[in-house]
């Protein structure tokens, strides 16, 4: 998600001025440290949900202090413990079950506080917009888990490749499209049943970014211009 920082994420931060940020999926921290710099200089806080961070968590805490809270757990276990947040960045486990329920938990928070957060979701285009990937297949209930294999993909082909291809060592759903399959499908299914009036904006570079915004949000005044200026 860090590739969107300069043209999309930073302008959204400036326009919306979030006081509490949640990032799901930080990996090596390329986006995380930029979020924390924002928090440091704008008197905000960031919750980072990442099971296996690829950086020194203690050094991060020492530098950013109380601005940073690192939660080394599954997102669906950690999110309910965060009382309120204004901005949610989702770049963790790219499958229907996880993303749908991350959004459902954000909605539960919003029903308590009266305000749905701005949500940025990575991988809304190929390959995981319409295909599940499981970081930990055992964490997904069998009824919601597609048949999967450790085989790669190529654009324009639904079936997995026999060898090679993109993300060949990930647990990828055997088939593309269909019910309960993929990040974008999860967003669309959530929006159909949400009690909030939400708008979805989509960018298509770098595997896609979905921006989910309450229709009454002040960000609606500037977001179309941010997206147009980004060229993404």
Automatic annotation (TrEMBL):
Its EC number is 2.1.1.-. It holds the Pfam family Methyltransf_24. InterPro entries: SAM-dependent_MTases_sf. The keyword Transferase applies. Keywords: Methyltransferase, Transferase. The keyword Thylakoid does not apply. GO terms for molecular function: methyltransferase activity. GO terms for biological process: methylation. It is an enzyme of class 2 (transferase). This is Class I SAM-dependent methyltransferase. It comes from Cohnella yongneupensis.
């Amino acid at each position: 998600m860090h590739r969107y920082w300069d043209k999309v994420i930073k302008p959204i931060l400036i326009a919306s001025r979030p006081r509490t940020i949640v990032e799901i999926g930080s990996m090596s921290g390329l986006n995380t440290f930029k979020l924390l710099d924002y928090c440091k200089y704008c008197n905000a806080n960031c919750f980072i949900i990442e099971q296996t961070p690829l950086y020194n968590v203690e050094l991060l805490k020492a530098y950013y202090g109380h601005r940073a809270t690192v939660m080394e757990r599954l997102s669906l276990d950690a999110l309910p413990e965060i009382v309120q947040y204004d901005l949610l960045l989702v770049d963790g486990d790219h499958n229907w079950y996880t993303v749908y329920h991350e959004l459902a938990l954000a909605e539960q928070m919003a029903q308590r506080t009266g305000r749905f957060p701005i949500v940025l979701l990575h991988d809304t285009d190929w390959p995981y917009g319409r295909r599940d990937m499981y970081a930990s297949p055992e964490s997904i209930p069998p009824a919601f888990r597609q048949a999967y294999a450790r085989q790669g993909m190529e654009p324009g082909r639904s079936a997995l490749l026999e060898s090679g291809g993109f993300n060949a060592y990930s647990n990828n759903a055997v088939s593309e499209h269909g019910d309960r399959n993929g990040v974008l499908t999860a967003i669309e299914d959530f929006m159909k049943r949400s009690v909030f009036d939400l708008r979805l904006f989509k960018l298509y570079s770098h595997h896609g970014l979905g921006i989910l915004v309450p229709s009454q949000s002040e960000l609606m005044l500037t977001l179309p211009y941010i997206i147009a200026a980004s060229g993404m």
